[in-house]
Design goal:
Layout (H helix, E strand, L loop, with lengths): L4 E11 L5 E12 L4 E5 L6 H8 L7 E6 L2 E2 L5 H10 E4 L13 H5 L1 H5 L5 H14 L16 H13 L5 E5 L7 H18 L2 E6 L2 H4 L5 E6 L2 E7 H6 L4 H8 L6 H6 L30 H5 L5 E4 L2 E3 L5
Parallel strand pairs: 3-8, 3-9, 6-7, 7-8
Antiparallel strand pairs: 1-2, 1-4, 4-5, 9-10, 10-12, 11-12
Helix pairs in contact: 5-6, 6-7
The structure holds iron/sulfur cluster and magnesium ion (MG).
């Protein structure tokens, strides 16, 4: 069957005043099946948020294609584009900055309903109540303002807003990174519950592999604007192939102190290079413990090295 979303050689380059080009997203290829959660992971500055924003067309792509239900959405204009936007919504990282402080929660949630002219009056009110309940809040909250809520509650409001026009696909850009550790699991569980109830498909962006472990069916790892590995969550945690993925996984603490004491940590040398001046050949080579001479000369191709397991590394 056709995947819900297909990203082909997606690029987003920013041309800076200095004549330099920032290749924030530089040739991504992946697909997301209906009802699936695809976790997109990488350190800050790797291009994962830019990728999300380019897919939903908050940014125009520099190159490549985004197919939604088989249709290239980056070619859509006018009414067809508006129609597409109904099916794809975004939940943002910062639950403080992303809600207008002067609007009531009810009006924030109903924004999409109003833009698309879906419901008015009693029906609109009933829809807002239903959404508040679906995210674990209640209908009295509709008349309050964002500042009256905690970070976790505000993120629930952001989720209700994204759900209001019944999208099929949600891009969640680090939706739990700004929250207290104590509420992160609750918000992840809310995403899972809503997925089950509404048949949603997610692109779930995060900066470490611990955060996406319990929600992702498949995971993509990004480094300097490129995907370095994509496979199922199970396979990635059990059998990571790319040295960068291996180092990210070795940084996650293991609860069992016995295991924790005896295992080896892979400590990466140096900082992420500037995306304005990426290394020749493999972008990871300046920090890779396995780097070989050919890694500086030739960019490794992103390819399927085992069924359903893709990586970009000369070791395979
Ligand atoms: Fe390391 Fe070379 Fe593989 Fe890049 S291609 S990840 S430098 S071994
Ligand atoms: Mg970001």
């Amino acid at each position: 069957p056709q995947p819900l979303l297909e990203v082909r050689d997606l690029k987003k380059h920013f041309h800076l005043g200095s004549g330099k080009t920032l290749k924030a997203v530089d040739g991504l290829n992946f697909a997301i099946e209906r009802g699936e959660t695809f976790g997109l992971v990488g350190e800050s500055g790797c291009g994962k948020s830019t990728a999300g924003r380019t897919i939903i067309r908050l940014y125009e792509a520099t190159g490549g294609e985004v197919l939604f239900n088989g249709e290239n959405v980056h070619g859509l204009r006018g009414r067809k584009q508006q129609e597409f936007r109904r099916h794809m919504q975004m939940v943002f990282q910062d639950p403080y900055a992303s809600l207008n402080p002067r609007m009531t929660v009810g009006n924030i949630i109903a924004e999409g309903i109003d833009i698309h002219g879906l419901y008015t009056g009693k029906q609109r009110k009933a829809r807002v109540s239903e959404l508040l309940q679906a995210v674990g809040l209640n209908e009295e909250h509709a008349n309050r303002f964002p500042h009256e809520f905690s970070g976790g509650q505000r993120q629930r409001i952001g989720i209700a807003r994204a759900l209001a026009i019944e999208p099929q696909f949600i891009i969640a850009d680090e939706p739990i990174s700004a929250l207290d550790v104590s509420v992160q699991a609750q918000v992840v569980n809310l995403f899972k519950k809503l997925q089950k109830e509404r048949g949603l498909t997610y692109l779930f962006i995060a900066h470490d592999l611990a955060m996406v472990k319990h929600i992702s069916d498949r995971i993509g790892v990004m480094y300097l604007g490129k995907l370095v590995e994509v496979t199922t969550a199970e396979e990635l945690y059990a059998n990571p192939l790319h040295p960068y993925t291996q180092s990210l996984l070795s940084a996650i603490p293991i609860p069992d102190p016995e295991v924790e004491r005896t295992r080896e940590r892979i400590i990466l040398q140096g900082e992420i290079p500037s995306p304005l001046n990426p290394p020749s050949g493999c972008p990871f080579r300046t920090r890779c413990p396995m780097a070989m001479p050919e890694c500086a000369a030739v960019m490794p191709e992103f390819k399927e090295v085992k069924p359903g397991h893709f990586t970009a590394c000369h070791l395979y």
